[in-house]
Amino acid sequence: MTWIDLHSHILPGFDDGASSDEEFLQIARVAVHGGTSLMAATPHYDTESPSFDPGEAAAAVVRGNELLRAEGISLTLLPGVEVRVNAGLFDLANAPGGLDALSLAAKGKYMLVDLPMMDMPVATGDIFFRIQLDGVTPILAHPERNRYLVEHPLSIRDMVEHGVELQVDSGSLEGIFGKAARRTARLLLKEGSARLVASDAHEPERRGPDLSGAARALKGLLGKDGPRIIMEINPGRVLDGQKPLDVTDRSRQESGAARKRLWRRSP
């Protein structure tokens, strides 16, 4: 199997990810070793205080692919950004085509977004709705690491019911962000709320791009087809502008009370 990783900070010089071409190549080699063949390069982007132009990141992806080919590394990069949810994003959505350059692979279909780690802005729902009016589906990165959402799981379900996709970090499944993040990540996947897993790689090792550990966790959690659906088929469908698939019918079959019991149990 070959994985598609929709969230990484592999581009050097844009944020707190890779710091040099050498580290960029190290991350790429680890990603390939772990089974990844296609990776979206998604540096942090804040519309209210941008530190770079999205076109610069897209140009860096072109250069990165040239460097990967020159080094014989079988990884292909796609452009994207991880956009902070704030009023600036709402304003940008009001401009015709204003979101296209921020979308994954610049296709104007899906956008990777994130929240502050400790809370959720009051206008988050309105911002997501405005994005969706433009035909763009928000993919919320690592909700399992947001303290407010971990303590208010009904807020996560409300997002999902309103068409927001969730992306869990592979490191959360492996426990590197603590027990609460691991438990929440597993629950989101088990109940069918989260249908995407990505590395969110910032470096070669600890917060690295190796998805093989996540594949093992997904197999134990969702069965033998889980890894392929969550890390190959679904991200591929996102890049094609299609809806991700459910791994099972669990989320449709279980009653609301049963799903609440699932959240109260430790995995």
Would you kindly provide a written description of the structure presented here, covering whatever features stand out?
- It contains twelve helices and nine strands.
- By secondary structure, the chain is α/β, with parallel strands linked by helices.
- The strands form two sheets. A six-stranded parallel β-sheet has the order 3-5-6-7-8-9. A three-stranded parallel β-sheet has the order 1-2-4.
- Helix 3 (87-93) links the parallel strand 5 (82-84) and strand 6 (110-114).
- Helix 3 runs parallel beside helix 4 and helix 9 packs across helix 10.
- The radius of gyration is 17 Å and the shape is globular.
- The two termini are 27 Å apart.
- The model is unreliable at 249-267 (pLDDT under 50).
The chain-level mean pLDDT equals 92
Low-pLDDT runs of 5+ residues are: 249-267
How many extended strands?
9
Strand arrangement across the biggest beta sheet: 3-5-6-7-8-9
Broad structural category = alpha/beta
What helical percentage do the residues reach? 40-55%
Please outline the major beta sheet. 6 strands, parallel
Large-scale geometry: globular
Total count of helical runs of at least 4 residues:
12
Query: What proportion strand?
Result: 5-15%
Radius of gyration: 17 Å
Distance between the ends: 27 Å
* Helix and strand element order: EHEEHEEHEHEHHEHHEHHHH
